[in-house]
Specification:
- The protein has 3 domains: 85 residues, no CATH class; 222 residues, D-amino Acid Aminotransferase, Chain A, domain 1 (2-Layer Sandwich), CATH 3.30.470; 166 residues, no CATH class.
- 35% of the residues lie in helices and 16% in strands.
- It contains 16 helices and 19 strands.
- Strands 13, 14, 15, 16, 17, 18 and 19 form a 7-stranded antiparallel β-sheet that branches. A 4-stranded parallel β-sheet has the order 2-1-3-4.
- Strand 9 and strand 10 form a beta hairpin.
- Helix 1 packs parallel to helix 16.
- This is TTLL3 monoglycylase.
- Pfam families: TTL.
């Protein structure tokens, strides 16, 4: 106690407790929610402890009235304010929801071009807060324009006047109503060049806007009324999702090719957005695919709306391909106590890298040890999380599209899953690098993926730093989630405060233990010995 080595832990962190005790620190135990869980963990620890006489309990009793010098907790909000003092070390900053919630990250990255010479569209799938009227209108425009671009892509699948026939969708588009007065084709019947002509005209006008657009991005969207959008979208749905044929002229095919090439110069996401116009609706204030960090993640069978599962909405993430369903879901899924503004809609990365036909994402850790000056440490080890069912854009179930462990633990591996997918659905980054080497991409990890992840993390932090509550002496460990595109570019999905340290596999058991060990080295040992080992942490930014 004389050496200011009193710590408090709130939450299931037996490794942190053991490492601090090994350094000679004494725990001040705090009664409260979850204490029974901690006591069970302490019992298990003490069976392995070199102090069978209970000296740690005695020392804890002796410091019961002392303020801790080091606090490690699940959430800053859960910490007794009386425990906080000016010079103690805490593992959280306040107001980090500016980048650790989907809504906060969406808003912060919208402001990035004003702060840095960086375009969020180059690393963050475009995202809209549905509770904001301007953003809701911008999303509607975006959905329509994406449908027009997608139609051009579909038109290019066959040359000349040969009809383009698309695969029929079994579960997301059937049963949608059509307006008889606009119906020019039933499912499977051909749609003629007029539809392509409309898409070409819309995209030409959009290109003109993009070529003259300034940084404030407030230029009105083209063609809000230039075509009958309800009719156009219904016809697009038939082509993209219901198996209708698309007929176009050779001249139109050349126009499509030329226009898409010019749009690609203006739109960083043109390639990854695919051609089925899939969007993902998320609770804006939540994270980890299952509600707020620390939520139960319990899975329940869901009702359907127009063929798309509602997933009971709380918590829930929903993929959909229809504009009316996004807007309806946002309102249907809003409980009386939750404002619709807490929902965001984001473009789904359709052209993503899969491993053995299965979607995966990357959980990447980093630590911020200071905000003034901003100081960021990147952890050089990370892990991949696989889905339980094979990837398909024609089937939008959670088991195929949400990689979070808290989601996938409720699903059994599909019988048609490739047997090479690991049974525990986890890989280390070392295993991923070996896979990339087998695919002829041995340099991709260090030359494309890691630099891309570092840049995305730094841009997210810079965009939010003016809103974060700075506290000298504190630090925070974060978990960023990335998808990998077909071109191996990483796409930032979200950043989690308080990333889980509960291992779900042999890989995460080792990695979670290592990152906790190295975090303490970084924030405690390095203060006394600046040359000490900090394990796999690498300083990537200090202003």
């Amino acid at each position: 106690a004389q050496e200011k080595k009193i710590f408090t832990i709130q939450g299931p962190y037996p490794i942190i407790r053991r490492l601090l005790r090994a350094r000679g620190w004494v725990e001040r135990k705090v009664p409260g929610t979850g204490r029974q869980l901690e006591q069970q963990q302490e019992k298990e620890e003490e069976q392995r402890d070199d102090d069978p006489n209970g000296i740690h309990d005695l020392m804890s009793y002796l410091v019961r009235d002392r303020l801790p010098n080091f606090i490690w907790t699940n959430f800053l909000e859960a910490t007794d304010r009386q425990l906080l003092q000016q010079d103690n070390v805490v593992n959280h900053y306040s107001r980090v929801d500016a980048f650790t919630t989907k809504e906060g990250l969406c808003l912060s990255l919208q402001n990035l071009p004003w702060i840095e010479q960086a375009d969020p569209n180059s690393f963050f799938p475009r995202c809209y807060r549905l509770g904001n009227m301007d953003e809701r209108e911008a999303f509607i425009d975006d959905f329509r324009l994406t449908a027009a671009r997608s139609l051009l892509k579909l038109a290019l699948e066959e040359a000349g006047n040969v009809p383009v026939r698309t695969e029929q969708v079994p579960n997301s588009a059937k049963g949608a109503g059509t307006d008889p007065k606009h119906s020019t084709a039933r499912q499977g019947c051909p749609l003629y060049p007029e539809l392509v002509e409309e898409a070409l005209e819309v995209c030409k006008q959009h290109l003109s806007v993009l070529q003259h657009q300034d940084i404030d991005r407030n230029t009105p969207s083209p063609c809000r009324t230039c075509i009958d959008w309800d009719h156009f979208l219904q016809e697009y749905y038939r082509v993209a999702h219901e198996g209708a044929e698309l007929v176009l002229t050779r001249q139109q095919r050349k126009q499509c090719q030329n226009l898409l090439e010019r749009l690609a110069e203006q739109l960083p996401q043109l390639d990854m957005e695919g051609k089925l116009n899939v969007w993902i609706l998320k609770p804006g204030a939540e994270s980890q695919g299952r509600g707020k960090a620390g939520g139960s993640g319990e899975h329940t069978e869901a009702p359907f709306l127009g063929g798309v599962p509602l997933l009971l909405c709380s918590p829930g993430i929903v993929c959909t391909t229809r504009l009316e369903e996004v807007l309806q879901l946002a309102w249907t899924c809003t409980a009386p106590s939750v404002h619709v503004g807490r929902w965001v809609v984001q473009k789904y990365v359709e052209r993503l890298l899969t491993i053995f036909g299965t979607k995966f994402d990357i959980r990447q850790w980093f630590v911020v040890t200071d905000w003034k000056p901003l100081t960021v440490w990147f952890y050089q080890d990370c892990y991949l999380r696989f889905c339980s069912w094979p990837f398909s854009l024609r089937h939008l179930e959670r088991a195929r599209h949400l990689c979070n462990v808290s989601v996938q633990k409720w699903y059994q591996t599909s019988p048609d899953q490739d047997p090479r997918v690991p049974p525990d659905k986890i890989w280390s980054n070392k295993q991923f690098q070996e896979y990339l080497a087998q695919m002829g991409q041995a340099d991709a990890w260090h030359q494309v993926l890691v630099p891309g992840m570092k840049a995305a993390i730094l841009n997210a932090l810079r965009s939010a730093r003016d809103r974060v509550g700075f506290r000298k002496g504190s630090f925070e460990l974060y978990g960023a989630d990335f998808l990998v595109g077909e071109d191996l570019q990483p796409w930032l999905l979200e950043i989690n405060s308080c990333p889980t340290m509960s291992p779900s596999s042999a890989v995460t058991r080792q990695l979670c233990a290592n990152v906790q060990r190295d975090t303490l080295r970084l924030v405690l040992d390095r203060k006394e010995n600046p040359t000490c080992s900090i394990g796999a942490f690498e300083l990537i930014y200090k202003e």
